[in-house]
Amino acid sequence: MCQYAIDLEDIFYSYEGQPVLKKLSLKIRQGEHAGILGDSGCGKSTLLKILAGLYEPDNGKVMVAGMDAPKRIREQVAIVMQQNSLFPMSIRDNISCGHDISEKRLWEACESARIAQWVDSLPDGLDTCVGERGNQVSGGQAQRIQIARAICKDAPVILLDEPVSALDRDTGRLVLCALQKLTAGKTVIHVTHHPETLGGTYVLYRMEGGRVTHA
Ligand SMILES: Nc1ncnc2c1ncn2[C@@H]1O[C@H](COP(=O)(O)OP(=O)(O)OP(=O)(O)O)[C@@H](O)[C@H]1O
Ligand SMILES: [Mg+2]
Questions:
Q1: Which of 8, 78, 123, 161 could form a disulfide with 155 if both were Cys (CB 3.0 to 4.6 A apart)?
Q2: CATH number 3.40.50.300 given to 31-57+67-214
Q3: 46 pocket-lining for ligand 1 (C-beta < 6 Å)
Q4: pTM here?
Q5: Ligand minimally distant from the alpha carbon of residue 40
Q6: Which listed ligand is nearest to 49 at the C-alpha?
Q7: pLDDT, tens digit, for every residue of 116-145?
Q8: CA-proximal residue: ligand 1, atom 2 (nearest)
Protein backbone atom coordinates (compact mmCIF):
# COMPACT_ATOMS: atom_id res chain seq x y z
CA MET A 1 0.00 0.00 0.00
CA CYS A 2 1.36 3.47 -0.85
CA GLN A 3 2.01 6.07 1.83
CA TYR A 4 -0.78 8.38 0.73
CA ALA A 5 -4.45 7.47 0.38
CA ILE A 6 -4.78 10.32 -2.09
CA ASP A 7 -1.98 11.48 -4.32
CA LEU A 8 -2.74 14.02 -7.06
CA GLU A 9 0.07 15.46 -9.13
CA ASP A 10 -0.18 18.37 -11.58
CA ILE A 11 -3.87 17.88 -12.40
CA PHE A 12 -5.44 19.95 -15.17
CA TYR A 13 -9.18 19.90 -15.90
CA SER A 14 -11.28 22.13 -18.19
CA TYR A 15 -14.94 22.35 -19.11
CA GLU A 16 -15.23 23.18 -22.82
CA GLY A 17 -11.89 24.93 -22.86
CA GLN A 18 -12.49 26.76 -19.55
CA PRO A 19 -9.74 25.65 -17.14
CA VAL A 20 -10.93 24.88 -13.59
CA LEU A 21 -8.08 22.81 -12.12
CA LYS A 22 -4.65 24.23 -12.96
CA LYS A 23 -1.66 22.11 -12.00
CA LEU A 24 -3.37 20.99 -8.80
CA SER A 25 -1.40 18.72 -6.48
CA LEU A 26 -2.69 17.23 -3.23
CA LYS A 27 -1.41 14.52 -0.91
CA ILE A 28 -3.63 13.13 1.83
CA ARG A 29 -2.33 10.53 4.28
CA GLN A 30 -4.21 7.34 5.11
CA GLY A 31 -6.81 8.10 7.75
CA GLU A 32 -6.46 11.88 7.41
CA HIS A 33 -9.64 13.95 7.64
CA ALA A 34 -9.34 16.87 5.21
CA GLY A 35 -11.75 19.79 5.05
CA ILE A 36 -11.78 21.71 1.74
CA LEU A 37 -12.92 25.31 1.72
CA GLY A 38 -13.20 27.70 -1.20
CA ASP A 39 -15.46 30.14 -2.98
CA SER A 40 -18.44 28.96 -4.97
CA GLY A 41 -17.35 27.93 -8.47
CA CYS A 42 -13.66 27.44 -7.61
CA GLY A 43 -13.76 23.74 -8.55
CA LYS A 44 -14.36 21.78 -5.33
CA SER A 45 -17.05 19.48 -6.76
CA THR A 46 -14.96 18.97 -9.90
CA LEU A 47 -12.02 17.90 -7.73
CA LEU A 48 -14.21 15.40 -5.84
CA LYS A 49 -15.50 13.90 -9.09
CA ILE A 50 -11.91 13.32 -10.21
CA LEU A 51 -11.10 11.76 -6.82
CA ALA A 52 -14.18 9.52 -7.16
CA GLY A 53 -13.06 8.25 -10.58
CA LEU A 54 -16.10 9.87 -12.24
CA TYR A 55 -14.06 12.37 -14.30
CA GLU A 56 -10.64 11.84 -15.83
CA PRO A 57 -8.24 14.80 -15.77
CA ASP A 58 -6.95 16.33 -19.01
CA ASN A 59 -3.48 15.88 -17.61
CA GLY A 60 -1.75 14.77 -14.42
CA LYS A 61 -1.54 11.76 -12.12
CA VAL A 62 -4.40 10.50 -9.93
CA MET A 63 -3.79 7.83 -7.30
CA VAL A 64 -6.58 6.95 -4.83
CA ALA A 65 -6.18 4.10 -2.33
CA GLY A 66 -3.32 2.79 -4.43
CA MET A 67 -5.42 2.71 -7.63
CA ASP A 68 -5.02 4.79 -10.78
CA ALA A 69 -7.68 3.32 -13.11
CA PRO A 70 -11.05 5.09 -12.74
CA LYS A 71 -12.97 1.80 -12.48
CA ARG A 72 -10.72 0.62 -9.61
CA ILE A 73 -10.87 4.03 -7.94
CA ARG A 74 -14.69 3.91 -7.97
CA GLU A 75 -14.58 0.68 -5.94
CA GLN A 76 -12.47 2.32 -3.22
CA VAL A 77 -14.52 5.46 -2.79
CA ALA A 78 -17.93 6.38 -1.36
CA ILE A 79 -19.19 9.81 -2.37
CA VAL A 80 -22.05 11.95 -1.09
CA MET A 81 -22.66 14.40 -3.91
CA GLN A 82 -23.88 17.95 -3.61
CA GLN A 83 -26.43 17.57 -6.39
CA ASN A 84 -28.92 14.79 -6.30
CA SER A 85 -27.30 11.64 -7.63
CA LEU A 86 -30.09 9.13 -7.09
CA PHE A 87 -31.10 6.53 -9.67
CA PRO A 88 -34.77 6.27 -10.74
CA MET A 89 -35.20 3.18 -8.60
CA SER A 90 -36.31 2.23 -5.09
CA ILE A 91 -34.73 3.59 -1.92
CA ARG A 92 -33.45 0.05 -1.29
CA ASP A 93 -31.70 -0.11 -4.70
CA ASN A 94 -30.30 3.38 -4.24
CA ILE A 95 -28.71 2.36 -0.95
CA SER A 96 -27.51 -1.14 -1.88
CA CYS A 97 -26.44 -0.27 -5.47
CA GLY A 98 -26.95 -3.86 -6.57
CA HIS A 99 -24.94 -5.38 -3.70
CA ASP A 100 -26.40 -8.07 -1.50
CA ILE A 101 -27.00 -6.20 1.74
CA SER A 102 -29.07 -7.68 4.56
CA GLU A 103 -32.33 -6.04 5.65
CA LYS A 104 -30.75 -5.47 9.08
CA ARG A 105 -27.77 -3.60 7.65
CA LEU A 106 -29.98 -1.51 5.37
CA TRP A 107 -32.11 -0.39 8.31
CA GLU A 108 -29.03 0.30 10.45
CA ALA A 109 -27.70 2.53 7.66
CA CYS A 110 -31.09 4.31 7.44
CA GLU A 111 -31.03 4.77 11.21
CA SER A 112 -27.52 6.29 11.12
CA ALA A 113 -28.45 8.56 8.20
CA ARG A 114 -31.63 9.63 10.05
CA ILE A 115 -34.09 8.44 7.42
CA ALA A 116 -35.38 5.27 9.12
CA GLN A 117 -38.47 6.93 10.56
CA TRP A 118 -39.39 8.60 7.28
CA VAL A 119 -38.80 5.42 5.19
CA ASP A 120 -40.83 3.38 7.69
CA SER A 121 -43.74 5.80 7.31
CA LEU A 122 -43.93 5.31 3.51
CA PRO A 123 -46.56 2.78 2.31
CA ASP A 124 -43.89 0.88 0.32
CA GLY A 125 -41.05 1.50 2.80
CA LEU A 126 -37.63 0.71 1.35
CA ASP A 127 -39.30 -0.27 -1.93
CA THR A 128 -40.59 3.26 -2.58
CA CYS A 129 -39.32 4.64 -5.89
CA VAL A 130 -37.49 7.98 -5.63
CA GLY A 131 -38.58 9.11 -9.14
CA GLU A 132 -36.56 10.47 -12.04
CA ARG A 133 -33.33 11.92 -10.55
CA GLY A 134 -34.95 11.63 -7.12
CA ASN A 135 -37.65 14.21 -7.88
CA GLN A 136 -40.11 12.49 -5.56
CA VAL A 137 -37.94 13.03 -2.47
CA SER A 138 -36.69 16.28 -0.93
CA GLY A 139 -33.10 17.46 -1.33
CA GLY A 140 -32.42 16.63 2.32
CA GLN A 141 -33.91 13.15 2.02
CA ALA A 142 -31.86 12.55 -1.16
CA GLN A 143 -28.67 13.58 0.65
CA ARG A 144 -29.43 11.20 3.50
CA ILE A 145 -30.17 8.31 1.11
CA GLN A 146 -26.69 8.95 -0.34
CA ILE A 147 -25.24 8.92 3.20
CA ALA A 148 -26.95 5.56 3.89
CA ARG A 149 -25.44 4.31 0.59
CA ALA A 150 -21.98 5.45 1.69
CA ILE A 151 -22.40 3.75 5.09
CA CYS A 152 -23.30 0.44 3.39
CA LYS A 153 -20.44 0.64 0.90
CA ASP A 154 -17.85 0.75 3.69
CA ALA A 155 -15.14 2.12 1.37
CA PRO A 156 -11.71 3.23 2.69
CA VAL A 157 -12.03 6.72 1.15
CA ILE A 158 -15.07 8.92 1.83
CA LEU A 159 -15.80 12.04 -0.24
CA LEU A 160 -18.41 14.45 1.10
CA ASP A 161 -19.63 17.44 -0.93
CA GLU A 162 -21.48 19.68 1.53
CA PRO A 163 -23.41 16.66 2.80
CA VAL A 164 -25.73 18.61 5.09
CA SER A 165 -26.27 21.72 2.95
CA ALA A 166 -29.90 20.82 2.16
CA LEU A 167 -30.83 20.05 5.76
CA ASP A 168 -32.32 22.23 8.49
CA ARG A 169 -29.93 23.00 11.35
CA ASP A 170 -31.13 20.33 13.78
CA THR A 171 -31.23 17.54 11.20
CA GLY A 172 -27.87 18.76 9.88
CA ARG A 173 -26.38 18.35 13.35
CA LEU A 174 -27.79 14.84 13.68
CA VAL A 175 -26.47 13.83 10.28
CA LEU A 176 -23.02 15.27 11.06
CA CYS A 177 -23.01 13.02 14.16
CA ALA A 178 -23.97 10.06 11.96
CA LEU A 179 -21.17 11.00 9.56
CA GLN A 180 -18.65 10.74 12.40
CA LYS A 181 -19.53 7.06 12.56
CA LEU A 182 -19.14 6.68 8.79
CA THR A 183 -15.79 8.47 8.70
CA ALA A 184 -14.07 6.98 11.77
CA GLY A 185 -10.79 5.36 10.69
CA LYS A 186 -11.33 6.30 7.03
CA THR A 187 -9.62 8.82 4.78
CA VAL A 188 -12.07 11.68 4.34
CA ILE A 189 -12.33 14.71 2.09
CA HIS A 190 -15.17 16.94 3.25
CA VAL A 191 -16.06 20.00 1.17
CA THR A 192 -17.86 22.62 3.20
CA HIS A 193 -18.54 26.33 3.49
CA HIS A 194 -18.86 25.83 7.28
CA PRO A 195 -15.52 24.62 8.70
CA GLU A 196 -16.83 25.21 12.24
CA THR A 197 -19.04 22.11 11.80
CA LEU A 198 -16.09 19.81 11.06
CA GLY A 199 -14.58 19.33 14.50
CA GLY A 200 -10.96 19.34 15.60
CA THR A 201 -9.72 16.24 13.79
CA TYR A 202 -9.85 17.95 10.38
CA VAL A 203 -6.86 19.42 8.53
CA LEU A 204 -8.13 22.42 6.55
CA TYR A 205 -7.25 23.15 2.93
CA ARG A 206 -8.27 26.05 0.71
CA MET A 207 -9.02 25.83 -2.98
CA GLU A 208 -8.19 28.91 -5.02
CA GLY A 209 -6.95 29.63 -8.53
CA GLY A 210 -7.38 26.00 -9.56
CA ARG A 211 -5.08 24.69 -6.81
CA VAL A 212 -5.29 23.49 -3.22
CA THR A 213 -3.12 24.77 -0.39
CA HIS A 214 -3.13 24.39 3.41
CA ALA A 215 -5.63 26.87 4.90
N1 LIG B 1 -20.78 20.33 -16.34
C2 LIG B 1 -20.20 21.52 -16.44
N3 LIG B 1 -20.08 22.13 -17.65
C4 LIG B 1 -19.48 23.34 -17.77
N5 LIG B 1 -18.97 24.03 -16.73
C6 LIG B 1 -19.07 23.48 -15.51
C7 LIG B 1 -19.70 22.20 -15.30
N8 LIG B 1 -19.64 21.91 -13.99
C9 LIG B 1 -19.03 22.95 -13.38
N10 LIG B 1 -18.70 23.88 -14.28
C11 LIG B 1 -17.96 25.14 -14.01
O12 LIG B 1 -16.72 24.83 -13.42
C13 LIG B 1 -16.42 25.69 -12.33
C14 LIG B 1 -16.22 24.87 -11.06
O15 LIG B 1 -17.46 24.22 -10.72
P16 LIG B 1 -17.61 23.35 -9.40
O17 LIG B 1 -18.98 22.80 -9.42
O18 LIG B 1 -16.49 22.37 -9.34
O19 LIG B 1 -17.43 24.47 -8.27
P20 LIG B 1 -17.60 24.37 -6.68
O21 LIG B 1 -16.35 24.89 -6.07
O22 LIG B 1 -18.03 23.00 -6.31
O23 LIG B 1 -18.78 25.42 -6.39
P24 LIG B 1 -19.93 25.39 -5.23
O25 LIG B 1 -19.26 25.82 -3.94
O26 LIG B 1 -20.91 26.42 -5.71
O27 LIG B 1 -20.51 24.03 -5.18
C28 LIG B 1 -17.58 26.68 -12.26
O29 LIG B 1 -17.19 27.85 -12.92
C30 LIG B 1 -18.70 25.99 -12.99
O31 LIG B 1 -19.54 26.91 -13.61
MG1 LIG C 1 -19.75 22.23 -5.49
A1: 78
A2: yes
A3: yes
A4: 0.94
A5: 1
A6: 1
A7: 999 999 999 999 999 987 788 988 899 899
A8: 15
